[in-house]
From TrEMBL:
Its EC number is 4.1.1.20. It comes from the Bacteria. This is Diaminopimelate decarboxylase. Transmembrane segments: none annotated. It catalyses: meso-2,6-diaminopimelate + H(+) = L-lysine + CO2. Specifically catalyzes the decarboxylation of meso-diaminopimelate (meso-DAP) to L-lysine. The gene is lysA. The keyword Amino-acid biosynthesis applies. PROSITE patterns: ODR_DC_2_1 (PS00878), ODR_DC_2_2 (PS00879). Residues 36-283 form the Orn/DAP/Arg decarboxylase 2 N-terminal domain. GO terms for biological process: lysine biosynthetic process via diaminopimelate. Pathway: Amino-acid biosynthesis; L-lysine biosynthesis via DAP pathway; L-lysine from DL-2,6-diaminopimelate: step 1/1. Keywords: Amino-acid biosynthesis, Decarboxylase, Lyase, Lysine biosynthesis, Pyridoxal phosphate.
Length: 423
């Protein structure tokens, strides 16, 4: 559920007509709804509270790193899951307390580890033995102890798109679950390391509970073994990955309530503090990308709606074959006609939808690409020397630009000519 809908014949974000924002900032732009972000956070945390589970929700900021988005969730009590020093700096700056930040990722460098230790983060999710040794060395040199969980690769099929599956043995993520006992034993012997938990994250946009259940059962058995081996495992990080509805004709993904009930059933008896790292679920449907039609082109075989947003602004359709609902901003009851919705970039992959039934639109008309709040703006680029687009946040009948449109000066001005060309 989100707060983008038609009123008086046009689409609003909460109490604000999109037309008004488009007039103020131009197109394309991303628009996020505070009420939707807050609601998603509340639904998720309440689902766990109902099960009596001790929960730390760490928003996976990589889904949308705008500080205003992180800050909206942090104000509700959210922690953060970060995967780079840059994300850690952003989360801290946006007001997430260090003691609610977990640090994931396969390639943390010594410098990044030192910065995270200095900041006093809650936990490192360690993904390999070489990383463990590096962290032990950095922490010991600083006279500190790093609280760690190992990210376990449980070798289960998440049944999602191959590019966002992370829990099979052939994926680069985590330590193989079959070697976990040896690796924990090694960690227990190292200086600067305090073993506190276990972590698992099997992929993104999961639309069924079964792969989660399979992974969590495996992990629960492992925790019992590790405890029998003498390790103190008090935190269980279950990662993110719960999917959202993109296509309204698809079956609904499992609800946060069903997810939390399954967590309670499978791992509740362990008495661990549960950490979850949802990204997409919190922000995906809290954002849209608003664009304007440039031309309508009648091709030989089909009709093309050429819009001012492109794959550099929202790469998910070309990168993951992702479906995004596309709707006109002005409500209409005209019959939809199949068309290809394409952007200006010189790539055939710059296509948002193929043969999609959309009501007739003309040059200058506004449209909204829905469910674009996660892995949208953060994955954008300036390919074709296109400017990064503005991000706008709506709250209580107001809107604010939370990142302005880049200027040509900022973009082109970054190039530097070597002295032999600078004459
Ligand atoms: C990407 C990621 C997440 C968030 O995944 P969503 O599908 O957006 O919920 C959580 N944890 C880790 C380690 C990740 O890499």
């Amino acid at each position: 559920m989100d707060h983008f809908g038609y009123r008086n014949g046009e689409m609003y974000a909460e109490e604000v007509p999109l037309r008004e924002i488009a007039d103020a900032v131009g197109t394309p732009f991303y628009c996020y709804s505070s009420a939707t972000l807050e609601r998603h956070y509340q639904v998720f945390t309440e689902a766990f509270a109902k099960q009596g589970l001790d929960l730390l929700l760490c928003y996976a900021v990589k889904a949308n790193t705008n500080q205003a988005v992180i800050g909206t969730l942090a104000a509700r009590g959210s922690g953060a899951d970060v995967v780079s020093e840059g994300e850690l700096r952003r989360a801290l700056k946006a007001g997430v307390p260090a003691e609610k930040i977990v640090y994931s990722g396969v390639a943390k460098t010594a410098r990044e580890m030192a910065f995270a230790l200095e900041s006093g983060i809650y936990q490192f999710n360690v993904e390999s033995v070489p990383e463990l040794h590096q962290l032990s060395q950095v922490a010991s040199e600083m006279g500190q102890e790093a609280a760690i969980a190992f990210r376990i690769n449980p070798d289960v099929d998440a049944k999602t798109h191959a590019k966002i599956s992370t829990g099979k043995s052939e994926n680069k993520f985590g330590v193989p679950w079959v070697h976990a006992r040896d690796i924990y034993a090694e960690a227990a012997r190292l200086p600067g390391i305090r073993v506190v938990g276990l972590d698992v994250h099997i992929g993104s946009q999961l639309t069924q509970l079964e792969p989660f259940r399979e992974a969590f059962e495996r992990v629960a058995g492992l925790i019992e073994q590790l405890r029998a081996d003498g390790h103190e495992i008090s935190r269980l990080d279950l990662g993110g990955g719960l999917g959202i509805p993109y296509d309204p004709t698809d079956p609904e993904p499992p609800s946060p309530d069903a997810y939390a009930a399954m967590v309670k059933e499978v791992v509740g008896h362990l008495g661990c503090r549960i950490i979850i790292e949802p990204g997409r679920l919190l922000v995906g449907n809290a954002g849209i990308l608003v664009s304007r039609v440039i031309y309508v082109k009648e091709g030989e075989e089909r009709k093309f709606l050429i819009i001012d947003a492109a794959m550099n602004d929202l790469v998910r359709p070309s990168m993951y074959d992702a479906y995004h609902e596309i709707v006109p901003v002005l409500e209409t009851d005209e019959m939809p006609e199949p068309c290809d919705v394409v952007g200006p970039v010189c790539e055939t992959g710059d296509t948002f939808a193929r043969a999609r039934p959309i009501p007739p639109l003309g040059s200058g008309d506004l449209l909204a690409i829905r469910s674009a709040g996660a892995y949208g703006a953060v994955m954008s680029s300036t390919y074709n020397t296109r400017l990064l687009v503005p991000e706008v946040l709506v709250k209580d009948g107001k809107f604010a630009v939370i990142r302005p449109r880049q200027s040509y000066e900022q973009l082109i001005g970054l190039d530097q000519l070597p002295d032999w060309l600078a004459q």
